[in-house]
Structure formats: structure tokens, C-alpha cells
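Hi support team,

I've been running sequence recovery on a batch of backbones for a student project. Most finish fine, but this one hangs at about 90% for roughly twenty minutes before it completes. I'm not sure whether the input is malformed or the queue is just slow. I've pasted the C-alpha cells below so you can try to reproduce it. Let me know if you need the job ID as well.

Thanks,
M.K.
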């Protein structure tokens, strides 16, 4: 599966962004999907994940209550709605997919990665 992330940009602290990740292929609805981010000089970290049906989600503590992951299997797309953004949310955001049923929080749980989209939050 190929993944294309979009929706990043420059936003002021307290603002919102919605990231999208479009997937190719006919089996999108069998994949669990995740969002990760990587800030300069830091390791890639988990943000949110969702199972194939959307019934199960997981979030990093740092974004819980501010971010919502969702998916539209008819459109082969997963979303990350981010609200109340903070400067520390600045990073390149990556979407990832795995054919497993587990809603993983580790990058090692995912087989496929998109190219990333930059999110910059100014103070």
C-alpha cells in the first residue's frame, strides 16, 4: 500500500489542523493505521492509531484530548484532527499502515509509511 499524507502547515498556538492520509489499494479497510511525528533532533514518536473499522483508537498522552484520529474506508483515507495546537507539536507527521489487527504504538508495528507532512506551530 502507498500512503500520501497532506494537510500540514503553519498555524498559531491554539489553532487547529486536519491531516489526511490517502492510501492506494483495495484492501485499505483491512489495515490498522497510525500517525507518528518526528521533531528535529528527536526520535519518531507515536501520536495516534486506529484499527481497521475505526472502533478502536489509541493516543499518546501528549495529544490525548486534543487530537482525534478517524478513517473513511470508502475514501481510503485516515485523518488526524488536531486542536489546541502547541509549539511542541511542531514536527513532521507521518502516517503508517499495518496489515495486522493490532493497534500498535510502536513504529516497528507498521509496515508501510507515507512521506510526511510538516506541521509548524508558532507561539
Amino acid at each position: 500500500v502507498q500512503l500520501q499524507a497532506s494537510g500540514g502547515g503553519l498555524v498559531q498556538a491554539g489553532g487547529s489542523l486536519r491531516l489526511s492520509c490517502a492510501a492506494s489499494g483495495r484492501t485499505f479497510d483491512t489495515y490498522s493505521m497510525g500517525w507518528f511525528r518526528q521533531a528535529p533532533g528527536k526520535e519518531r514518536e507515536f501520536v495516534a492509531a486506529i484499527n481497521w473499522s475505526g472502533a478502536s483508537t489509541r493516543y499518546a498522552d501528549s495529544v490525548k484530548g486534543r487530537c482525534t484520529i478517524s478513517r473513511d474506508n470508502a475514501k481510503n483515507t485516515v485523518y488526524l484532527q488536531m486542536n489546541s495546537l502547541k509549539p511542541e507539536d511542531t514536527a513532521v507527521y507521518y502516517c503508517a499502515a499495518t496489515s495486522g489487527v493490532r493497534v500498535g504504538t510502536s513504529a516497528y508495528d507498521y509496515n508501510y509509511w507515507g512521506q510526511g507532512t510538516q506541521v509548524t506551530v508558532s507561539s
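--
Follow-up from support: It reproduced on our side and the slowdown came from queue contention, not your input. The chain has a mean pLDDT of 96. No action needed from you.
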